[in-house]
Amino acid sequence: LNALAQPSVPPPAKLIARDALEATARELALSVDSVEDLARTFAAFDGCDLKLTANNFVFADGNPDARIMFIGEAPGAEEDRQGVPFVGPAGRLLDLMLAAIGLDRSDAYITNILPWRPPGNRNPTDAETTACLPFIERHIELARPQILIPVGGTAAKALLNTREGIMKLRGRWLIYATPRMDVVPTRAILHPAYLLRSPAQKRDTWRDLIAIKQRLDEIGDVAT
Ligand code: URA
Asked: Is ligand 1 within 6 A of the CB of residue 150?
């Protein structure tokens, strides 16, 4: 009856633990000022249990100074074996998508929300994503791309902090910003693993790639 007068109910221990973990991750991530130090600090972070089952820490590939940064979901089997993101079947399609707009891994920077493979490629849990997100945010701040490309729904939702699905998020320019960084034009695209299963969606992705290329060309014009 008189619920408002009751002492407030403390949050469950699990939530407290998750908040504390996120705070620790954020403190660690903000303590570094270079991509190399971030890689070392993230690799040593023990707050995500995926580390216990993964074979490798998969940090990034390509050029950290590139104008464009692609962020996928998590390593798959081949990425876990090699320690390099996007080197399996989806990665081969991503390379073709890059080539379609005149890019390769020397002028693109590629990473994932999670650096450790979820067992059997299951979807990452909210707790796993929350623990790793401060590191990827710092990664973006340190790489300072001019264009950000979340690859697939999991990356788009995590980075843009939204529940909206990839089909609603793709096809338009969005923005990504942190308190320490100006806004970055952001364009979410369908995941190449999804395109391998649903090739009919390649047409829309092609349109997104053209829009990305146009934006890159515009930025190039401004820079010269
Ligand atoms: N899928 C991803 O999202 N990232 C990879 O690195 C490989 C497959």
From this structure: no
